[in-house]
Amino acid sequence: MSRGSGDARSDEDLLRAHVHGEPGAFATLIDRHQTYLWSLACRTSDNPDDAADALQDALFNAHRMADRFRSDAKVTSWLHRIVVNACLDRIRRNRSHLTVAIPEYDVLPMADERDQMAAVDLSVSIGRALDTLPPDQRAAIIAVDVEGYSVAEAAEKLGVPVGTVKSRCSRGRLRLAQLLGHLKSV
Known about the structure:
This protein is mostly helical. It has two domains: 1-101, RNA polymerase sigma factor, region 2, helix turn helix motif (Rna Polymerase Sigma Factor, Chain: A, Orthogonal Bundle), CATH 1.10.1740; 111-186, Arc Repressor Mutant, subunit A (Orthogonal Bundle). Helix content is 68%, strand content 0%. The protein has eight helices and no strands. It has helices spanning 11-19, 25-44, 48-64, 75-96, 113-132, 135-146, 151-158, 162-180. The longest helix is centred in the middle third of the chain and has 22 residues, at 75-96. It is elongated and about 55 Å long.
């Protein structure tokens, strides 16, 4: 989850140091969790470009609002929630400004298609099905089914009640089952 750093202070101590004006404290904190936050943004967003933009927005917001952090949760949970919210905001913003993606025609290196075609097809099918879900359902399913958080942990990270996560996952899984039913083995 974290890459670590030479600074042995806790996340909370680093955030507190940032709030008190210590240069580099916030950078150390983010460097410690950057890999996790990037993967979270990628899983929650529609594409890597939106993930990068949402993560930048989230880190800016976290930097600016660090003094509002309440110590009733872990700093990583606080950052998780800010990143997910930034991704969901970007998804909503993009849906209100519909655009048509231009297909990329980059030449890919030759690969043995017999080994990878089924996995690629399955991945694309699941990705497209996830993209059709409402953002709140997608975030719940990614937190529970992809990241492996318990329902209670997902509820804390998403800032919603446990029952809300359960219902979002249930509705999302039902929709995914309908969309991906053709993938069942006969």
